[in-house]
Design goal:
68% of the residues lie in helices and 0% in strands. By secondary structure, it is an all-alpha fold.
């Protein structure tokens, strides 16, 4: 008898023991059911839309900040300001039209205050990663992912009111939004531990996670257009409403595991359960925390994600400001041009997942080699283009090209380090992602503050320091993961399988006796 409400995949449907059979060797004995119109593919697409909403909720303040701030209030300009370095576009004064919209206030926030507000989201996001991953891995990820998005969306609707009350209120609200959204990615991994067959793991997880880049791509220009046409408060009402609508579909259509899904075919259900075997599924209430913290492969993931996220969050939160202050694009142009890098990142994320699975299916490379190759590509090459960005000066077209190529290539790490938790410990993937994302969130807090501090005078030389620093940090992450990373399951991730299986069997036996 299966246990519903969490993923308890401890044996094949026919009752045969699958413990000793390697996952990748076991898959492929029977043809897999088609992905087109499958439940697992539908889950990936719904997650894709969900994370698009997640990132829209996350980045809306980045663009709206340009319209919210009174640029004439307290912004000290040096004699070598960016206004003298780069020519002003003829249409750049569009941002001043914000003052002409009725009911649209502006605030005298300096660069330090803006950096603090942009970092507030991540200060809350930091605290729910590990608890969210642990509970989602034990109880199922459906309510945690859906509830995280819904809670953040409802709070986003309150942003204009919080801003009118003052900086402390807006900071607190953004921190609470991050607190609610912190459970979403760990919950995603917990769901994929129950739903993703090993040979489809890269493409399914990459497709779902690529929603973040797609959300940034859509939200950045759309936010700029809404600010210009309706005023910045409308941005938060639109994003919050979209999150509420998505949550409604999520709770109606999604189940925690294949066994409890009411519309899945028997063939697809059996394929997923058999291919995942005992290494996947939910974990017990006790977890090997000591072994996790002593795991070198886990710490290599942590370092690589921290280094990669430094660049990602720097661009995500500060690129609209760079477009406005340095290259002097107006708010609509800066929103659109800031979005182009994420279009490329979205495409490369999805493509990298497909290519990675093809390499594994054809046995051209092992899991470790695949993860390291895509991680190197996703960290080193983007850093090189960021260095190039720092020296192109005021050539707006070339600057946008370098940023776009850099962010596009960073998407390939989706099939590398960002999926590696499922390789080394499938049953603990949600909690591992919580651990790695907790550390990976630190750049989201620190990077906007550092950028705000480094760019007080808004000069090209200051931004050159920002880009070169990001490139150097990415190189460190690539080196560490290449030396210490692995794609092999860790012994501590398998050690309590027998105990959990025996406990599940006893529970099922008691349930059967009670029913009789």
């Amino acid at each position: 008898m299966a246990k519903y409400g969490q993923c308890s995949i401890n044996s094949a449907p026919d009752g045969t023991d699958e413990e000793s059979t390697p996952l990748l060797a076991r898959v492929g004995e029977e043809p897999a059911p088609p992905q087109c119109c499958s439940v697992r593919c539908g889950l990936a697409n719904l997650m894709f839309l969900g994370f698009a909403v997640v990132y829209a909720l996350r980045v809306n303040l980045s663009v709206a900040m340009v319209a919210m701030v009174n640029g004439t209030s307290g912004q000290p300009m040096s004699n070598h300001s960016s206004a003298e370095e780069c020519p002003t576009h003829a249409s750049t004064n569009d941002s001043s039209s914000m003052e002409q919209l009725a009911g649209v206030p502006q605030y005298p926030w300096d660069s330090d205050t803006q950096g603090l507000l942009l970092a507030a989201f991540f200060s809350g996001y930091l605290f729910t990663q590990v608890p969210g991953g642990y509970l989602a891995g034990r109880l199922g990820g459906r309510y945690f992912l859906g509830g995280g998005v819904l809670g953040t969306a409802l709070l986003t609707l309150l942003t204009p009111s919080a801003a009118s009350l003052g900086v402390p209120w807006l900071f607190t609200l953004r921190a609470l939004e991050g607190f609610g959204e912190g459970v979403t990615y760990p919950a995603m991994m917990a769901l994929w531990a129950c739903w993703a067959p090993p040979l489809e793991r890269s493409r399914l997880v990459s497709l779902a996670g690529a929603g973040g880049n797609f959300g940034a791509f859509v939200a950045l220009p759309l936010t700029g257009a809404i600010c210009h046409s309706l005023g910045w408060p409308a941005v938060f009402y639109c994003c919050g409403g979209a999150g509420c609508v998505w949550a409604l579909f999520w709770f109606i259509l999604v189940s925690d595991d294949p066994r409890s899904h009411p519309r899945i075919s028997e063939r697809e259900r059996d394929y997923i359960i058999t291919s995942i075997g005992k290494q996947g599924g939910s974990h017990g209430w006790s977890v090997p925390v000591g072994s996790m913290l002593r795991s070198v492969p886990l710490w290599s993931i942590v370092v690589a994600q921290v280094c990669s996220n430094w660049t990602y969050y720097t661009l995500l939160t500060c690129l609209p400001t760079y477009m406005d202050n340095i290259l002097h694009f107006n708010i609509r142009e800066s929103g659109l041009l800031s979005a182009l890098p994420y279009l490329g990142g979205w495409f490369c994320s999805v493509l990298s997942g497909v290519v990675a699975d093809c390499l594994l299916e054809r046995k051209l490379l092992g899991v470790t080699a695949v993860r390291k190759i895509f991680t190197l590509t996703g960290l080193l090459l983007p850093g090189m283009f960021l260095v190039g960005e720092s020296f192109v000066g005021c050539a707006g077209g070339l600057a946008v090209l370098c940023l776009t190529v850099s962010s596009s290539l960073s998407g390939t790490s989706a099939a590398g380090v960002f999926i590696n938790q499922l390789d080394i410990a499938p049953r603990y993937a949600g909690m591992l992602l919580g651990i790695t994302n907790t550390f990976g969130t630190i750049p989201g807090i620190v990077a906007p503050i550092v950028v705000g501090h480094l760019t007080k005078q808004r000069t090209m030389a200051e931004w050159r320091t920002v880009f070169c620093l990001s490139a150097a940090i990415s190189a460190v992450g690539a080196l560490v993961f290449t030396v210490f990373g692995t794609g092999e399951p860790q012994s501590w991730a398998l050690q309590d399988t027998e105990t959990d299986t025996r406990g599940d069997t006893e529970t099922d036996a008691k349930e059967e006796r009670r029913v009789r």
